[in-house]
Amino acid sequence: MNHFLRNSPFLLLGLVLLSSCQSLPNNPPPTVKAVELDRYTGLWHEVARLPVFFQDEDERATAEYSLNDNGTIALVNTAIAPDGSTRSVTGHAVPVPGSENTRLEVTIDNFFAKIFGSSPDFGNYWIFKLESDYSVALVGSPNRKTLWLLAREPQIPDEQLRQYIDYASQLGFDTDKLILNNRPL
């Protein structure tokens, strides 16, 4: 993807405007029951994801979350190109009231997001599946257009990978389009 298009503030503006116009879909996928934010924070590696316009197919990514004193989460998402070069964005996440921290409203820190707002009140980052030891998480949007399989390590066992992909498919995500980091499907 063209580097200019990936980093264009006009694309970010479009994303912000589109996300603010969304409504909660009918029959959204269920989330886990509750999330302990202090256990959820830390470094996560992207194991698999659906394609997104802001990340090339051959890039890997990490997400680092840290808990703020006010109960919000600071985030740093880093895309890693095959040549090792990186680019990062920062932002914050606010738990949706009444969701037991299973749904978050994530905002990327940029000029346009601060002017136009971010996601709807139902959140744009939902936690659908989470290992009891907080080692693997399946997260995405309620409209099923974004999905990430995250883990504390860069890879997970093949059987566990298959279980998470199967679960995502049961939730209605188009898992045929998944991009897997460092392994075939």
TrEMBL record:
Keywords on record: Lipoprotein, Palmitate, Signal
Superkingdom classification of source: Bacteria
Lipid-acceptor residues (N-palmitoyl cysteine): C21
Residues in Lipocalin/cytosolic fatty-acid binding domain copies: 35-180
One Pfam family of this chain: Lipocalin_2
Residues carrying lipid (S-diacylglycerol cysteine): C21
PROSITE patterns: LIPOCALIN, PROKAR_LIPOPROTEIN
Annotated signal peptide: 1-25
Record Gene3D superfamilies: 2.40.128.20
GO biological process, one term: response to stress
Keyword Lipoprotein: yes
Family stated for the protein in its record: Belongs to the calycin superfamily. Lipocalin family.
Name assigned to this protein: Lipocalin family protein
Organism, scientific name: Puniceicoccus vermicola
Source species taxonomy: Bacteria, Pseudomonadati, Verrucomicrobiota, Opitutia, Puniceicoccales
